[in-house]
Amino acid sequence: MDTYRSLTEIIPLSDSVVTIGTYDGLHRGHQEIVKRVVTYANATHISSVAITFDPHPRNVLNPESELVSLIMNLKDKLALFSELGVDYALVIPFTDAIRKMTANKFLNDIVVKYFSPSQIIIGYDHHFGFHREGSPEFLSKYAKQHCFGIDVVDAVSDEGALISSTHIRGLITDGYVRRASFELGWVYGFQATVVHGVGRGEKMTFPTANFIPVEKSQLLPKPGVYLTRGIVDGHTLHGMCNLGVRPTFDEGEFVMEVHFFEKKVKNLYGRNIRIEFLERIRDEKKFSSEQTLIEQLKQDKKHCIALLAKYV
Q1: Is the pLDDT of residue 245 over 90?
Q2: Under CATH, what is the fold of the domain 187-310?
Q3: CA dist., res. 304 & res. 312, Å (int)
Q4: For residue 235, what is the enclosing H or E element?
Q5: Residue among 33, 38, 72 at smallest CA distance from 54
Q6: I need a labelling partner for 278 at 20 to 30 A (CA). Which of 5, 104, 192, 197 fits?
């Protein structure tokens, strides 16, 4: 997949099928749209194009108190676009100029000018342009005037619940990571950098790697203990992860740390790893002593290893 990060990089196409969206999480509903784009492009022997935005438009439009945390960073989004078979991706920097651009101008000066679409496929709830005037209804009228097709894809639902970025974000922040992964269509997790901790886990015979997300706006799951999967240099490592303030030691600082069951990789400090959250095991809680905590960690590990049969 070829990726453009500015309009000046684009080599104009003579025909294409295009989709437009923020695609935070690129969940199963989003994937249905992208798959239609790719299927149409392959059937008609033209190029498939995905247009997305960075940063998330809501983090430009909203006040600082209402910024949205991201389910998926841009790098992972582009990787999934490519995996789904998209030929070209355009990442539009969501600047103030883009924010003020009318829907008509956006279509004329970007979509039509550079990609000459014979078909545009979008989600039922996607809006673009100044004041979100570029609704599916607006796009349908524009398509008729400019003689190309339009396909508005309905929401994907499961057991009566609509799959959406907002709903999935709520599942993650409430700790329902397994359900969130089902609705995403991929295992929820993120890229992280391993950092130095205080070394307490090593002393308790549960050595941990402390980590921080690479994406500064990364959405984090509810504090607690999780069965996790780590990917380091192509190696898959299973373990258990704690997110919280370690109340037993009255430290107060929020920490993310993972204890891997396997010891395939050493010297993780400063390295990038991927952490995936498979299931939430329990709440974080304060124990009466370090020894009581160690006994709980042994039970947690036993529980996690028993659950691994579902994932390996």
Answers
A1: no
A2: Elongation Factor Tu (Ef-tu); domain 3 (2.40.30)
A3: 12
A4: strand 235-244
A5: 72
A6: 197
Query: Model confidence at 198, in pLDDT bands (50, 70, 90)?
Result: low
Contact (CB, 8 A) for 150 and 143: yes
Instruction: Enumerate the β-bridge partners of residue 12.
Output: none
- Exposure string (b/e) for 220-250, b if CB count within 10 Å is 16 or more? ebbbbbbbbbbebeeeebbbbbbbbbbebee
Whether the Cβ atoms of residue 92 and residue 109 lie closer than 8 Å to each other: no
Phi, psi of 227 (to 5 degrees): -75, 130
Which tokens hold the place of 46?
């033209």
Q: Is the pLDDT of residue 204 over 60?
A: no
Summarised one tens digit per residue, pLDDT across range 77-131 is: 999 999 999 999 999 999 888 989 999 999 999 999 999 999 999 999 889 998 8
Enter the tokens of residue 97.
Answer: 């100029």
Sign of CA dihedral 171, 174, 179, 181: positive
> In angstroms, rounded to a whole number, what is the distance separating the alpha carbons of residues 157 and 170?
16
Spatial distance between the Cα atoms of 228 and 258, rounded to a whole number of angstroms: 8
* pLDDT-derived band at 250, boundaries 50, 70, 90: low
Domains of the chain, by residue range, sit at 2-162, 187-310
The conformational region for residue 134 under phi > 0 = left, psi -120 to 50 = alpha, else beta, is beta
pLDDT digits (tens, 9 = 90+) for 162-188: 899 999 999 999 999 999 999 999 999
Rg (C-alpha) for the chain, rounded Å, is: 22
Q: What is the dihedral of CA 41, 42, 44, 48, to 10 degrees?
A: 20
